[in-house]
Write a structure and sequence with these properties.
This protein has helices spanning about 5-25, 30-45, 50-60, 75-95, 100-120, 120-135; strands at about 1-5, 70. The protein is mainly alpha-helical and about 140 residues long.
Length: about 140
Amino acid sequence: MRVDIRGTRFAAAVTTAVLAAVLVSGSFRLLAAQALVFAAGAALGVARSPYGLLFRRLVRPRLGPPAGTEDAAPPRFAQGVGLVFALVGLVGYGAGPLWLGMAATACALAAAFLNAAFGYCLGCEVYLALRRVAG
């Protein structure tokens, strides 16, 4: 399966905004909601995640055909990595220490921002590196 590159960058932009709001507000609930989005992206694929559906229904109809697509597996893996960071963040925000929640959220924010702003998917690169090592 292949996904529209613009959709993954749109999802990364929304994720960037949500995670920035978590850092500013310290909202456990908002981070929990983002963790659910990451879980959906990892389980169902980015095209069927909430942000993927939002892109497909509201944004893509206003755009022309995609200039490029990519294999769905690396972004799906990246969603799983984001989920791990969000879960660690939830532990930090919920049970402490607070710096753990902030650090994990900041790491996920940095990765989402790299994808949204520059089209560089850190989790995708980790996936590809692991595939090369595994053969």
